[in-house]
Amino acid sequence: MKILFFTFSFLFFISTVKAGSVDGRAILCKSSKQIDQDNPWRGYFFEKGQVFSLHIHGYDTIKLKLGNYSYGGGTKYIVWGRYRQTLDRKTLKLNDATCSLSSKDKIKTFLNQIITRAKIENKL
């Protein structure tokens, strides 16, 4: 019985450590899809085993919870979401987007600068 308890405790510890290794990290991505050209920028950040996105909608920055992340290919990829978004950890390619390391605050600042420019440029 003790062996079973220690085995499950050890397995729980390993999965907990593995799940949070990218927590606190963030990426800023630019989509290459033609449909996203009006606003190709989107930020992603990782907290407590979950992925969140930051993007522009109108004149607002929207935060969406995308769900839990997991690893694929050993630890080569980070995968999340209903449509299995796949981030290559070495190249920082996210499906069709090119990404760079960032922080949640830097992403918010960058997106707010885009919103400010749009407000100035729009005449109506």
Euclidean distance between termini CA atoms: 72 Å
What spatial order of strands do you see in the largest sheet? 6-5-4-3-2-1-8-7
In N-to-C order, the SSE pattern is HEEEEEEEEH
Uncertain ranges: 4-19
Q: Would you mind describing this structure in some detail?
A:
- By secondary structure, the protein is of the alpha+beta class.
- The chain has one domain (22-121).
- It is 29% helix and 40% strand.
- The chain has an 8-stranded antiparallel beta sheet.
- Strand 2 and strand 3 (50-57) form a beta hairpin.
- The radius of gyration is 18 Å and the shape is elongated.
- It starts with a helix and ends with a helix.
- The relative contact order is 0.18.
- Mean pLDDT is 85; it is low at 4-19.
What would you say about this model in short?
By secondary structure, the protein is of the alpha+beta class. It has 2 helices and 8 strands; from the N terminus they run αββββββββα.
Layout of SSEs?
Layout lengths: L1 H18 L6 E6 L9 E7 L2 E8 L2 E13 L4 E4 L4 E4 L4 E2 L2 E6 L1 H18 L3
Antiparallel strand pairs: 1-2, 1-8, 2-3, 3-4, 4-5, 5-6, 7-8
Task: Tag the structure with descriptive keywords.
single chain; elongated; eight-stranded antiparallel beta sheet; 124 residues; alpha+beta; 40% strand; 2 helices
